[in-house]
Amino acid sequence: MIEPFLIINNLMGYVDGSIPCPSKTFSVTEGVTVSKENHSTTSHALWLSLEKEYTPHSTSREYTLKTQLLRIEMHGDETISAYLNHAQEYADALATIGERVKDKDLVMLVVSGLHEEYNDLKTTITARQSLTAFSELHALLSDHDYMLGKTRAPAPSITSSFAANYVVGSPSMPEAHQA
């Protein structure tokens, strides 16, 4: 049952020895040889292993990235998107050098660096029973911004609308009767 499969897929030669086994390494570019022993099954996995192998890793780079992530703060009029992108860039750079940041740790660091206007949301996020994913933060923070915007710009009151339409003493303003 296996033999027909091997014959159809041109693999029988590897079994009977008529085709030599491939080498354990292959050349990516002239002078660079990569071992196949990492058992990369996809091109993506191979690319990640190459990136990890050839990305310069130094203790000082690791220290710098971790310090930047630990001290991340939202600055001035920085948008939510820009702030979250900075955090993601630090986490991605750490992952590239083999120092993955747990999602819950990334959320904690990002939340702690938010402006004071987000204090209510900070409390809600940290008090939740279920963990908040980093991917959820943008929506939560955007919703919070929307709600803050609505409370900062109150709807015009009936009194101010009335006053704007009628000027005291104008013919259209009803006179108050004195007793």
TrEMBL record:
It comes from the Eukaryota. Pfam families: Retrotran_gag_2. This is Nucleotide-binding alpha-beta plait domain-containing protein. It comes from Tanacetum coccineum.
